[in-house]
Amino acid sequence: MADVQPGQRVLVHAAAGGVGHLAVQIAKARGAHVIGTASVGKHNLLHDLGIDEAVDYRSEAFEKVIEPVDLVLDLIGGEVAVRSLAILHPEGRLICMPSAAAAAAVAAAADRGLRATGMIVEPDGVGLESLSALVDDRRLRVLVAETFPLERASHAHRAGEFGHTTGKLVLTV
């Protein structure tokens, strides 16, 4: 959906999270200059994943320290998405996930003549094959934060609600 190109500047919010850590690696594999927001304790991990710039969202207002970007992948929503418009190139794009959190950012972007959209995950065989190739080439790895047996799915859900998970939560069957 983002069609990341070599040399583009990409900002990933929640870059160490379950989706963010994958987005960082995919954007890097496509040749982008990747910037990510995460707490300072996760910056070493982000550098291991190939990130070019890490911003501690707890101590810095990202929109004041990041130069304009071509793409923002917002995995947080709300005011973070709207604030991201301040650093978006006029021809850039803001993608919000989940799309339910996108309405305010899409409206604010339209008011400023910028592009913003929500995103819903859909089955995509071609996309999955390209991800599989990145895994085979060792350019994409999935970090597992914690595993839960299926009967503890509610515990996994609660762990994910806090929004500070590094990597994926996995249910085992």
Descriptive notes:
The protein has a six-stranded parallel sheet with strand order 3-2-1-4-5-6. Helix 7 links the parallel strand 7 (144-149) and strand 8. It has two domains: 9-118, 3-Layer(aba) Sandwich (Rossmann fold), CATH 3.40.50; 143-173, no CATH class. It has helices spanning 20-29, 43-48, 62-65, 79-84, 103-112, 125-136, 153-161; strands at residues 9-12, 33-38, 53-56, 69-74, 88-96, 115-118, 144-149, 168-172. It is an alpha/beta fold. It starts with 8 loop residues before the first strand and ends with a strand. The chain is built from seven helices and eight strands; from the N terminus they run E-H-E-H-E-H-E-H-E-H-E-H-E-H-E.
Feature tags:
173 residues; alpha/beta; 2 domains; 7 helices; globular
Termini separation (Å)?
A: 32 Å
Q: Identify the CATH architecture of the largest domain.
A: 3-Layer(aba) Sandwich
Order of helices and strands: EHEHEHEHEHEHEHE
Taking all residues together, what is the mean pLDDT?
A: 94
Which fold name fills CATH's third level, the topology of the largest domain?
Rossmann fold
Number of domains: 2
- Give the uncertain stretches in residue-range form: none
Strand content: 25-35%
Structural class: alpha/beta
**Number of discrete helical segments:** 7
Global morphology: globular
Helical content band: 25-40%
CATH homologous superfamily descriptor of the largest domain: NAD(P)-binding Rossmann-like Domain
Strand order in the largest sheet: 3-2-1-4-5-6
